[in-house]
Each structure stands twice: as C-alpha cells, then as structure tokens.
Amino acid sequence: MISVVANALYKKEDNFSTMNPIWETTTKVRAFDVDANGRLKVNTILDYFQDAASNDAERLNFGYNEFVPKGLFWVLSWAKFEFLVYPKFGDEIKIQTWGKKQFNLYSIRDYLLLNSKDEIICRGTSAWLLLDSKSLRPKILTHLFPEIKMYESKEALTDLPQKIIPFPQTEIIYTTQVRYSDIDLNQHANNARYVELMLDCFDLEYYREHVIKSITVSFNSESKFGDQIQLNKGSEIKTPLTNYIDAKNLNTNKLVFQALVDWKYDS
Prior knowledge:
There is one protein chain. By secondary structure, this protein is an alpha+beta fold. The protein has 2 domains: 2-144, Thiol Ester Dehydrase, Chain A, CATH 3.10.129.10; 171-265, Thiol Ester Dehydrase, Chain A (Roll). Helix content is 15%, strand content 39%. Strands 1, 2, 3, 4, 5, 6, 7, 8, 9, 10, 11 and 12 form a 12-stranded antiparallel sheet that branches. Helix 1 packs antiparallel against helix 4 (191-199). It is globular and about 50 Å long.
C-alpha cells in the first residue's frame, strides 16, 4: 500500500447542504502532457485525478494537513480506470471527483474526465485505507467520523476492490532504482510513478498500434529511495490483449504492485 497525500470523503458542516459534493476543475492539455502519438498520457490522466482528489480533500478538511496532526493518513490500495477517448494537445477537459461510499475497510472514491462537450472520455474508481500512523492499523472512516456524508447516488464505475491473480508465466522486462524524483511527501515512491514504470514495459511500436482500454492496479507495499525494482510482464494466448504486470522490490522481496492492462487496436 502506497502512502499518498490525496483523498477525501465528506465532512458534514453547517453549509454542507449548499456545498457541491463533486470537486470539479478544468484545464487544457499541454504539449508535455501528450505522448509520441499526440494522445494525453495515461499517467498524466491519473495525475489529474490525484491532484483533484487532493484539492477536494483540503476543501472538505479530510486532506493531508487535517489528518496528519491527528495521527491518520490515507493509502491508495486499489484502482481501476477505463479510457474511452484520449484527448489531444490543446483540448479543454474537465476533471471531477467525489467520495462515493464505505466498502468494508475501504473508502471508495470515483473520478470522471470529460471533454468540452461534457462527454465522458475516462472514468475511474479507487479504494483507500485510512491508517493509524503509529500502529499502521486500518480505521473505518465512518466509525471515526459518523458525521460524514458520502455521495452514493453517482457512480463512475461499479467495480469494487478485488485481488489480482498473477499470470502463470511472466518475464523480466527491466530493473530500475527508486530515485529522488520518485519520492513524495511521505518519503516513499509515489503511486503515480508506479504507473509510469508499468507503461514503460511496452515498446513504442506497440503504442503505435494499440491504446490502453483499461487499467486495474493493486498497490501492495511501499518502496523507498535506493530500492531496486524489477518489472515483470505476462500474457496468455487466450487473452492476447490483456497483460499482467507486477513490480518486485528486490531489497524487501515483496511485490510493490500488480496490474492488469487491457488493450484495444488503435483505430
């Protein structure tokens, strides 16, 4: 599980009835946000979502600045994203996020990416754990803060967290080391960086012929500065457009993350 700054659900306040439960912001796709094919990078889309979640957290007093003094912090445990249309350089896009519901120990947060016509072009959902900073034990958010109100009537995806089963055969793609630019505020490699490592398991020619349809990822353990990370990839004959990827921390011998990447041919 990877420590991160962002996440929020909804704290009941005097003005909650007039507060929009959805955080929304707009931006334009910048030149350095697109890949060699002119499409917005997958990891950049996830950066947008994480930034929106962080802003929503601070707005509703459930972000990093509010929880750390209370000895609490969020970790992202699992996420799934579906990519319908990839925006291009100069396109105006809208990002939305909201806290959806409590599912067992997990706080579920959803996301939408929309184009200038308010058409959905990407949707996602994520599962977060609230941990005690001393014991590292999970806390149930709605037990600690019964005044919380969530926005259950709106769903981007209906999926809920589940275990990712490894493919029977994988091959080592490459090995890398956690560097300064990978480290976030919590002194660990940021989960967004893991998505970049995953994307680098495929060559440029593959990206010219395929686009990612969906990503499901489970964040299993942390990695720190200097750790050696081994990326492994697998596929099966019966599902050639689905890849399994995992990252192994060679210093701890633990899996850092597991992912399923579904592709489609670029039309």
